[in-house]
Amino acid sequence: MRAHEAGALHGDLGYRGPAWLRTPEDVNALVPQLWPRTVSRTEAGSLEIGGVNVADLAQEHGTPAYLLDEDDLRSRCREFAAAFGDADVYYAGKSFLCKAVVRIIQEEGLFLDVCSGGELAVALKAGFPAEKIGFHGNNKSVSELSRALEAGVGRIVVDSFDEITRLTDLSKKSNKRPKVLVRVTVGVEAHTHEFIATAHEDQKFGFSLAGGAAFAAAVKILDEGVLDLRGLHSHIGSQIFDTSGFEVAARRVLELQAQIRDARGVELDELDLGGGFGIAYTTQDDPSTAGDLAKRINKIVEGECDLANLRKPRLSVEPGRAIVGPAVFTLYEVGTVKDVDGIRTYVSVDGGMSDNIRTALYDASYSATVAGRRSPAEPMLARVVGKHCESGDIVVKDEFLPADVRPGDLLAVPGTGAYCRSMASNYNHVPRPPVVAVRDGASRVIVRRETEDDLLALDVG
Ligand code: LLP
């Protein structure tokens, strides 16, 4: 994540926001890289997505709501599949998963990465072919592993010696030989928020390369011969813009591959370099296209294979955010506008940290625009906050909104397709918003709005 530092105070005019914010004249403008591809501002001034006006969507489905641009999502799936060619592209379901999305990614030819029994259940329920599923997790339970074996999940990414023992026992009992990858912790310090970096030594995922655990795990699996070791896996973190981390990861994993070959005479066929490709949340973020990423990653792997004198393994990647993140914006309604004298204006919306925890959790930056009209008013620096009982309940830290923003205005926050609905909570017993897919002038609810009755149904007294 690119941490955007808050700007300095400017004389006695008060806080003006970080220097990267859009220029005030742009207050009605939509910066294309931030918005789903079918989104535009109509002549009349309101936003449209998939050919449907946001005012109509708000009326039909209520706010807050996650609005998914189905054409945008499909086009990103296709771009990744085409760019990576003969590599397998696993959509990382943790970013956002529901049955409709499972069907879309299947129709668009992707594989699927799941990391819990729940995600596996959604995939199987939607009819996704088990052999195209990769199963992750640092603490898969016996029940989860049994279900994966029974379903015939294509790859299980093993993450600990305990799991190897557990899976080996289950495989023997059920007379199955699952295909596995060994997750390797390559020791890369990815340039992202520490909570979403996953390849430095001091964290819970994978087998350490430096400490020799990764080599020992691979050799153990080969020597025991119960599990079918297909290859190695590395995921260095999330919201990464700089491919140098992938380069170091590929080099280290391929060196390990050469070491395994030299020790056991086995050249592993597969290499999974994980996901983590960054997207634009603000005008300052400049993400690579799928084509660029594929070119660079293929070149890195080919180069490293030459150096290690290995044949190029079958490659796979696991993008989540880069596929679904930009395809969605959250539509809120403004409830209150509060000017805190000389500091900033707080614009409260009808959702907040329960539908987007990323600002509070990772200090993430977002953008926003008034969605229901074009405003002639002067720009005003605002902070968009939610309705939760917590002062850290911030959706957008800094944004120029028109000075006439008022209760009843619709407000759109783009880039919320990944890790917003999937990390949503019921904090303060606020029901979770629906996900509405929009395409060709029509909308359909793919995840319905939670109700207070849903919440009470769990509360069995
Ligand atoms: N593969 C593995 C093994 C992963 O752990 C992840 C993400 C991905 C792929 C997909 O990464 P992506 O392409 O979506 O960046 N909640 C955090 C992100 C956590 C990511 C966890 N693993 C956030 O909101 O930024």
Characterize the structure shown.
It is an enzyme of class 4 (lyase). Residues 326-417 form the Orn/DAP/Arg decarboxylase 2 C-terminal domain. With 461 residues, the protein is of the alpha/beta class. It has 2 domains: 19-69 and 326-457, Lyase, Ornithine Decarboxylase, Chain A, domain 1, CATH 2.40.37; 136-319, TIM Barrel. The chain has 12 helices and 21 strands. Strands 4, 14, 15, 16, 17, 18, 19, 20 and 21 form a 9-stranded mixed sheet that branches. It has an 8-stranded parallel barrel with strand order 5-6-7-8-9-11-12-13, surrounded by 6 helices. A 3-stranded antiparallel sheet has the order 1-2-3. Helix 3 (99-107) links the parallel strand 5 and strand 6 (111-114). The longest helix is centred in the middle third of the chain and has 21 residues, at 244-264. It is globular. Residues 1-14 have low confidence and may be disordered. Ligand LLP binds at residues 92, 94-95, 113, 136, 196, 198, 235, 238-239, 274-277, 318-322, 358, 362, 418-419, 423. The site of ligand LLP has 24 residues, from helix 10 and helix 11.
